[in-house]
Amino acid sequence: MFIVPLSILSSISISTYSKEYIKPENCKKPDIGKRYFISAKGDDKKGNGSRLHPWNSINHGLKKIPDGNTLIVKPGIYDGTTNLTRNFKTGILIRSEYPYEAILRSNSRVLKFKGAASNIHIQGFNISHFNQDAKPLVIHIDGGAKDQLQNITIANNIIHDSFNNDLLKVNNGATYIKIKCNLFYNQGDSDEHIDVNSAERISISDNIFFNSFESSNRKITSKSSSYIVIKDSNSNKDQFLGSRNITVARNVFLNWQGSIGHGFILVGEDGKEYYEANKVFIFNNLFLGNSTLPMRSPFGIKGAKNIHFFNNTITGDLPSNAFSMRINREGNNPINDNIFIRNNIWSDPNGTMGSSPHQSSNDFSDTIFTEINNFEFKDNLIWNGGNALPHSLLDKINPSNDASIEIADPMFKDNTKLSIPIWIEEKRKFADGSFTIREVFERLVYYYGKPQNGSLTHTKAVSNYTLKTDILGNKRNKPHSRGAYHIDNTPKSNIPALTE
Questions:
Q1: Residue 354: its pLDDT value, please?
Q2: In Å, what is the CA distance from 264 to each residue of 44, 288, 300, 378?
């Protein structure tokens, strides 16, 4: 079980975070207990779940497997909704026998968690809708407005191509949910990769988010929404008013193909009269501006409080209305309050920050004075290709508000020609040559999120605000470092060059 800090201080020491957040978790959970088997050629009536006599469906296996054991799904295509509605005390692991070769497909919900579902770990699957005739959602973790759905882990899966609504929705009072080490791409129009909606203690870590609609023979409509949204649409109809204690850490975001009104992460959305999110921690993430399609801003807040955005790296051309963030109110939202933005890197190597054709003014941020109360903007590094940093008299947050700003070139590599890491099923590998999601992740971070030698990203940051580890979980040998990647680190193994 993971712990999110429950108290908010004007300065947060990393000691308030559990070790589980500081150190990347293993993407592959080892088998537990006895192994039971599912095969597309198995038989639910005659099988006994053994390797030689497997069952045919995961739904049947879920009814039969004793608590504390592992359900292994052999390679093949499994059609239909898998209903995960059982409460396990010790917990079970459900995994693909070989990563991404057990293919879960449906034109309704592919995985549906609801009711008293708890202590279930899903690992290693290829999960998507079939086609444009699909009903809403690929994975739904629905708390049912009670406190019975908890301790669910979605790990090391390829989750892609929702033709109707979100790829993954966590809502209605779900708690203690881990979403880690997955690869997400191609949601439906007007929807998200992950929608956290009236939920608590949700961890989103070590994932890769992008879109590549053309790779799935889909049209780029530029209508899809943020990759991650954190909000509360249903007021007090469950046990939570506002999503709270949410952590988004050590993820990679790239290849924007969505609406010009959205961006990678949005906290709050629906214009409610209450704070839609409270106590959200966003750190050690890498945002890559490799797309020519415009967005509103990579990070947005609408009617939220106690939001911490620190040690993130945003790099690339990133055509947008505001290069860093948009903090505003929608509808009946209360004024945004207690927003802390520290130790980040924003780098536009082309020097077009604040002069995008999609901007109506010279904006680093869109933060209207009347729509944000208390905030702290401190110890960040900002680079605009050697050009002057943008400044707007209309906005409350400008680079000049950071008294300890560093203006220097972080020397990131050009990311405009990176290979979009879609999964090539017939080759059993990703388009960049990787064989695992973690390998894709490390390549993206090492080649495009690593400041080059001579960078000043490690100087002058305040140690109380600095994480002790970086996006890869490596120790920050010098405590004063900005951004997601610590410059003194070297890869743990030889990482082959990315295919470009």
A1: 74
A2: 43, 10, 8, 22
